[in-house]
Amino acid sequence: MAGAEDLKLLGMWASPFVLRAKLALSLKGLNYEYVEEDLKNKSELLLKSNPVHNKVPVLIHNGKPVCESTVIVQYIDEAFAGTGLSLLPSDPYERALARFWAAYIDDKLLPSWTKTSRGSTEEERAEGKEQSAVAVENLEGALRECSKGKPFFGGDNPGYVDVILGGLLGWVRASEELYGINPFDPAKTPLLAAWAERFGALEAVDPVIPEVNKLVEVAKMMQAKLAAEAAGASN
Amino acid sequence: MSQPETVKLINAFGSPFGHRAEAALCVKGVPYELILEDLGSKSELLLKHNPVHKFVPVLLHGDRAVAESIVIIEYIDEAFEGPPLLPADPHGRAEARFWAQFIDHKFSRPFWLSFWMEDGPRKEAFVKEAKENLALLEGQIKGRRFFGGDDIGLVDIAAGGLARWVGVFEEVAGVRVMSDEEFPDLCQWAERYVSHESVNKCLPSRGELVALYSSWKEMYMQVAKVKFSS
Transmembrane stretches, by residue range (chain B) (predicted)? Predict the structure, then answer.
């Protein structure tokens, strides 16, 4: 195809960070080649393209790699500025707000969820639960502030924060079956609960989110493995 | 033509994170009013404008408040005229953001706190990890005047703490992390950074910082003890 950009995404199907890149590419209507990595046996290409972290996702555009999910999403938005939706707003202050909340999701929300589900002690998990409650409450406020009554963090259309948070949707959905918890409880965070439904149902989003039963299967396998290791370690 | 809106920066003296915001304003050439917080007794202004984190720095531009030092640097770059802090091409911008994020994650509060840990294998592990991360930066700065190229950019400002504060912490805590034998290019970059006319204006002197952190040494050692215990 004349003028076709060479876009390749190195990923792992269950990764929420990879999902962010897929969502950005999908929302902008971009074609790309997807390469599923075996994280226990990483490809030469992955190791060469992300020498610092050796992690997915990596976006390779015309041979040049871009790493880190938030950096990739901003890159996709800027390199393909004329194509499809604009993920970041044009006003500098609104861009700063979007970046602030994206950082919050990674620095506060995600670690609190990890602590809740994978904390090594009862105490740690309880602390995680408390921190998660504060984090989602703040995000509920962020959604109210950023959306100004419109459907998405980005306003009428999904934007940067929708993509960054949206990457977590697969695991948010799996969480109910795994832990009996809905992280976006409609009783406590009605806006986020509605947002999750709405964003998840978008034509560009729905087909891209990993299947919940597959995520649950992977999580249960991990839990069994960790339990076996713990049992072995305590002998 | 309307008056330019006032720019104020809420900072705390001696904060390497606060310095990032000041350095960005100075490099960009934006006049600002500095408001220094006493972090032991946070002001209403700070709590109102950064209710989520209650940390400095916070940039106030007219009626807008921007928090998070890296977010502030990009805001300053986009909201004001002046020398660009990021390159124009998307790939160059992605590189800059990658390294700024790397620095922000690897040289964050735990890094600074680790200087005050009790000697022992845990502290050694922290120092080892810090040196591994510094080595990656050494690789990046080789052959360049600044991480941003010919002039200071986002990554240089994000790394500003390494240029001045590491030396201070080394002196007060008695730990060597960034020697010029091991990191010659990075140390030379540090010299260029602190001597840069825009940075020099807003950088606390080494002497002032040594005095400050010496007075806080006991407190930080207690905090480190609690944080890194068990």
Answer: none
Amino acid letter, A26: S
Bond prior to A186 in cis (omega within 30° of 0) = no
pLDDT tens track, chain B, 230 positions? 456 889 999 999 999 999 999 999 999 999 999 999 887 777 888 878 888 887 899 999 999 999 999 999 999 999 999 999 999 999 999 999 999 999 999 998 889 889 999 999 999 999 999 999 999 999 999 999 999 999 999 999 999 999 999 999 999 999 999 999 999 999 999 999 999 999 999 999 999 999 999 999 999 999 999 888 75
ipTM: 0.94
> Distance, in angstroms, between B94 CA and closest chain A CA?
6
The beta-carbon contacts of A71-75 under 8 Å, at least 24 apart in sequence, are A71/B94, A71/B97, A71/B98, A71/B101, A72/A20, A72/A21, A72/A24, A72/B94, A73/A20, A73/A21, A73/A24, A73/A160, A73/A163, A73/A164, A74/A160, A74/B93, A74/B94, A74/B97, A75/B90, A75/B91, A75/B93, A75/B94
Q: How far is CA A174 from CA A1, A151, A212, in A?
A: 39, 23, 5
Cα–Cα distance for residue pair A12/B207, rounded to 1 Å: 50
Residue A100 to residue B71, Cβ atoms within 8 A: yes
A95 CB neighbours in chain B (<8 A) are 74-75, 78
Look at residues B126, B117, B129, B104 and name the one whose alpha carbon lies nearest to residue B174: B117
Nearest-CA distance from A15 to chain B in Å? 19
Q: How far apart are CA B86 and CA B95, in angstroms?
A: 10
Alpha carbon of B51 to those of B65, B66, B109: distances in Å? 11, 11, 19
Q: Which residue has the tokens 């998660």?
A: A132
Residue of A49, A86, A94, A100 to mutate, interface with B, max B Cβ within 10 Å: A100
What is the C-alpha to C-alpha distance for residues A215 and A222, in angstroms, rounded to an integer?
11
Alpha helices in chain A (DSSP H): 16-27, 44-49, 69-79, 92-104, 110-118, 122-147, 160-166, 169-179, 190-200, 212-233
Contact between B93 and A99 using a beta-carbon 8 Å cutoff? no
- Is the peptide bond preceding residue A57 cis, with omega within 30 degrees of 0? yes
| Distance of alpha carbon A61 from alpha carbon A63, whole angstroms | 5
Residue with tokens 């390749």: A8
The span from the first CA to the last CA of chain B, in angstroms, equals 61
